[in-house]
């Protein structure tokens, strides 16, 4: 009898606990607070389509929304949130790792805004510092290269790149958030073009000289044949 009462009491406790958990589950589901719902909502948010800026003059400008494409691998720079944060947040929250992703369609995850010391719309000039930031309202973190965190690659140790705004004690952005587009200078390009033209001319002259050298014996033989015929006619 005691064992039956104990089993009945245990079943009652289990049913009450199950009812409480079911009630809690249904309430969270109705509010969209289940972990799977949060993760799904976040994925929908960070994969939301973004319209990139149009360059009418061929230049980049402060305030432009751009993607960074690697043509050789057909990947774009993308922000990656930690999996643990994806169950808690509704938008991109730094610090985030970055990677080169195969999803090349512009979206919240792979679109960045160019920020810097100039006003929005000003042309980004050569050798000017700038900041790559995730879009305002969905994170607003700047892209940073962290020299204190490195990892080994086939090319040596390299810095980690994360989506995080690093500031000093005065709330000013640190240099690790500043990036510069590196291009060839005009004078270097002009000199390289000049050297290339000189090499092409030298190569052309060498080919012509080689052709003349190959044709010389045949030409000489033909001339000897013509001279022999002329002497025969004279006889």
From TrEMBL:
Residues passing through the membrane, by range: none
Coiled-coil intervals: none
Superkingdom, natural source: Eukaryota
InterPro entries: CF161
Swiss-Prot/TrEMBL keywords: Cell projection, Cilium, Flagellum, Signal
One GO cellular component term: motile cilium
Any Pfam family matching the protein: CFAP161
GO biological process, one term: cilium assembly
Region (Disordered): 193-235
Secretion signal, residue range per the UniProt entry: 1-19
Entry keyword annotation includes Signal: yes
Keyword tRNA-binding carried by entry: no
Protein name (Swiss-Prot/TrEMBL): Cilia- and flagella-associated protein 161
Organism annotation: Acropora cervicornis
């Amino acid at each position: 009898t005691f064992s039956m009462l104990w089993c009945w009491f245990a079943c009652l406790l289990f049913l009450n606990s199950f009812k409480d958990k079911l009630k809690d589950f249904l309430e969270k589901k109705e509010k969209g607070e289940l972990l799977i719902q949060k993760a799904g909502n976040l994925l929908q948010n960070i994969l939301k389509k973004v319209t990139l800026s149009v360059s009418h003059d061929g230049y980049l400008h402060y305030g432009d929304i751009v993607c960074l494409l690697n043509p050789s691998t057909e990947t774009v720079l993308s922000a990656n949130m930690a999996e643990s944060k994806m169950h808690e947040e509704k938008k991109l929250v730094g610090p985030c790792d970055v990677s080169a992703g195969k999803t090349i369609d512009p979206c919240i995850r792979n679109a960045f805004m160019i920020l810097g010391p100039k006003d929005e719309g000003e042309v980004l000039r050569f050798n000017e510092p700038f900041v790559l930031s995730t879009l305002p309202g969905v994170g607003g973190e700047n892209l940073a290269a962290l020299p204190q965190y490195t990892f080994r690659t086939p090319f040596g140790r390299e810095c980690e790149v994360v989506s995080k705004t690093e500031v000093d004690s005065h709330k000013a952005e640190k240099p690790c958030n500043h990036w510069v587009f590196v291009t060839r200078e005009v004078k270097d390009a002009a000199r390289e073009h000049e050297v290339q033209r000189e090499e092409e001319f030298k190569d052309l002259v060498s080919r012509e000289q080689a052709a003349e050298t190959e044709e010389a014996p045949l030409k000489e033989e033909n001339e000897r044949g013509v001279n022999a015929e002329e002497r025969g006619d004279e006889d």
